[in-house]
Design goal:
Blueprint (H helix, E strand, L loop, with lengths): L9 E5 L3 H8 L4 E5 L2 H6 L5 H9 L7 E4 L5 H12 L5 E6 L9 H9 L4 E6 L2 H11 L5 E5 L1 H6 L5 H11 L5 E5 L6 H9 L3 E4 L1 H4 L9 H19 L4
Parallel strand pairs: 1-2, 1-8, 2-3, 3-4, 4-5, 5-6, 6-7, 7-8
Helix pairs in contact: 5-6, 6-8
């Protein structure tokens, strides 16, 4: 099987914990960063802009995505231009629609053609991929984030959608595809196999990298030892 050094897909750390972001920044395997308002809330972030500037004081050499949090397109646009002004490495996350199901594609088009690096996020369908490509084509460098993990959460295999997305983007070199919301380490290798450009990885997935290529008999023994040790520590008797 492939080793981590053989992978062509770029690993982007996904999260909003400052210590973890700094740890990931020191990891040469990590080629970029993403975050979102939900992750920020979970991390206890209270001041969005202060947090962003703090992170950008360190993350200056790799792309990083920050998301707008308005629901009206006019306010989204204002926020997007402000966020984009924080650094040349900043991508602005624009949700594929607002909470009323109104498409954000016209806003995406304006921003991309005004020089804003856009990350179209929360994509789940090939129609949304096609619409995003049409809006972004000819604009600034951009990415489309297809939430493969959430697609899988519905019982659907995300591979056909991700594979077709790679094909659709082949003629648009300025637009990259992100495999978002991975659920397991295997997703990194699946993304690499189909030629996906980027996959976001949480700390939980990153922590499993040490298991790549491990001998399965050794892994089996480690698992047996874990069960035995935990049973002994629990003092179980029959």
């Amino acid at each position: 099987m492939k080793g981590i050094s053989d992978l062509k897909v770029k690993l982007f750390a996904d999260g909003a914990d400052r210590a973890q972001i700094l740890k990931s920044h020191a990891n040469p395997l990590i080629k970029g960063f993403t975050t979102n308002p939900t992750l920020m809330r979970a991390a206890g972030i209270r001041d969005y802009e202060a947090f962003a500037h703090d992170i950008l004081s360190v993350v200056r050499d790799r792309p990083i995505s920050f998301e707008v949090f308005a629901d009206e397109f006019g306010e989204m646009e204002r926020q997007a231009h402000k966020i984009a002004g924080w650094g040349d490495n900043v991508y602005v996350k624009i949700p594929v629609m607002n909470t009323r199901r109104d498409s954000s594609m016209e806003l995406v088009r304006r921003l991309a053609h005004a020089g804003v690096k856009v990350n179209v996020t929360a994509i789940m369908t090939l129609e949304q991929v096609c619409n995003s490509i049409a809006a972004l084509a000819g604009g600034a460098p951009s990415v489309v984030s297809v939430f493969a993990g959430r697609i899988a959460d519905t019982g659907r295999d995300p591979m056909p959608i991700m594979t077709e997305s790679v094909r659709l983007l082949a003629s648009h070199p300025a637009i990259e595809l992100i495999w978002a919301s991975p659920r397991e380490l295997l997703n990194i290798f699946q993304a690499d196999d189909i030629g996906c450009h980027i996959i976001t990885v949480t700390d939980g997935v990153l922590s499993k990298l040490q298991s790549v290529g491990k001998d399965l008999n050794d892994f089996s023994l480690e698992t047996v030892q874990m069960f035995y040790n935990d049973a002994a520590k629990s003092g179980f008797t029959l």
